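User: Run a structure prediction on this.
Assistant: Running it now.
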Amino acid sequence: MLSAQHVDRYSIPSQSRYSLQSFAGKRPLTRAERTGFTETSHYDDVITFIDSLRTLGAKIAVGSIATTVEGRKLPYVIASRPLITTPAEARRLGRPVAYIQANIHAGEVEGKEAMLSMLRDLLFDPKPNVLDSLVLIVQPIYNADGNERWAAQARNRSSQNGPELVGTRQNASGWNLNRDYVDADAPETRGSLAMLNEWNPDLFMDLHTTDGSIHGYGLTYSPPLTATAINVIPYTANVMLPAIRKRMLDREGFHVIDYGDFSRTRRGSASGAPGGALGGGGFGAGRRGGRGAARGPRPPSLEQIIADSIPTSGWAFSTYEPFARYGTNYYGLRNRIAILSEAFSHDPFARRVASTYDFVSEILSYVAEHRREILQLGREADAKVVAWGDHPSTSPSIPLRSRMDTTRIEDVRVEMVVPFTDSSKAEPGMRDRQRTGIIKLVRMPVMASFTPTLSSTLPYAYAFDATTARAILPILHTHGLSIEQLDDAAHVTAQAFAIDSVMDRGRSETSREMSDVAGRWSPASARTLPSGTYVVRAGQPLGLLAFYLLEPESEDGLTQWSFLDGIVAAHREFPILRVTAPATFRTHPVHD
């Protein structure tokens, strides 16, 4: 552990693109800007702000991705110079498409404010900027119903430093929308997927706020964590985000790092050796939570241990779950870059807006500068998946399940906290503690990636009967997958999965009960698929997504999300076959 450093964790860095002076004299202003960051925008404020952009002459296209349960239309804004309003036009001009959404957890408010301010600043900037190189789509208030469920920050966001009134994490149905990307039961999610299917963005960003650990970073981030996303994780995690981390410090003055919370490693793995599992569940003890969190008395926090000068070995900075139910994890399965942004909840509201604004700005600048490279990444990834599916013998081993692992060892910035003693220094979100501004560097594992525990290869296709089709066709269409139906019987080489057991995984954070199956695949053998059988080929651009959703042993697929309840049972054959070798099909497409 290195010597302590006292830093200003409350002010916006002087070199930041966004400051308390940067919006002076501009129009329109966000509610946060108008109120000195004591309030955040209501739904009507967002709609009025967008209308004001058009009134003031901004060349934008505006629409709605969906209507919520309570009848609110979810707005999106398209901005580019010149204005591009169709995916075909964007492709013709070689423009990458960046899709950025905020406020999926409506108490996490700075993404909403940052993106409204950024739209204004880019649209009315007379100088060249990223809008001359890409198409920007902003959905600033994803959870509009939750946004309007106002309550004190201490109730709705207990570990957050303002504003005083914020909305809720859940939508009007009580669902966590950032757990809905596989089952897509909410209208917000279905609208989001429709936009992703239409535009096929080259970059997807989801803007959030952390809580929990009091680390020394203004913002944390994550690439897709679902290990199945083999075509985009290496570039996003190892090339793009390290460059952004350096830019954020050098150009904006913010320290940033991979998303994480401080977690205890199990006995024997304190050194951070690869494979050191976390205590409790398998996926850490942070805000996003593991499935098997340990119960019992809460141990002292790392920050408090440091303040008390107790040895700090045995700690790790660990990320969240790899499941595709999370938006950025899901989008990686579509062969495109996805990035999670997490402003630091214990920073003052204005500083959180600034860190989010700067982070998105740097990401957009990077995409604009590397647009040919990023467009090529997507094209090549699509072509690889199509080729693997068309010729299964060429498919690499592709993960279906994984465990968190050590990505690297580094000195992690930890802010010391002390017990609350002075009421004049009380700040929201800190309960009985207070920050000191003293940062210590603690060497520990950064666990921000996942190692496969179960892998397979792409088949030629998946095949299923009409009963199974009634259960899964709607969700497959929602995800944008191509589906066919046999006009004639087909002779194939296929595998069947024998189910040994069906296990309850408990309730999700949406409307569904979770389940899992265990069993084994039979050796491939000759089969005849009757006319009328439904077929999903793996040789399509979304083949990795089909693989993840349809494999029975996926860690977060359709089986796990109860789409096949009543069809799957112990000691039965799984209702979806794997066609393992190229076959001749006479088919017609199955549309919505």
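Residues 487 and 586 are 6 Å apart (CA to CA).
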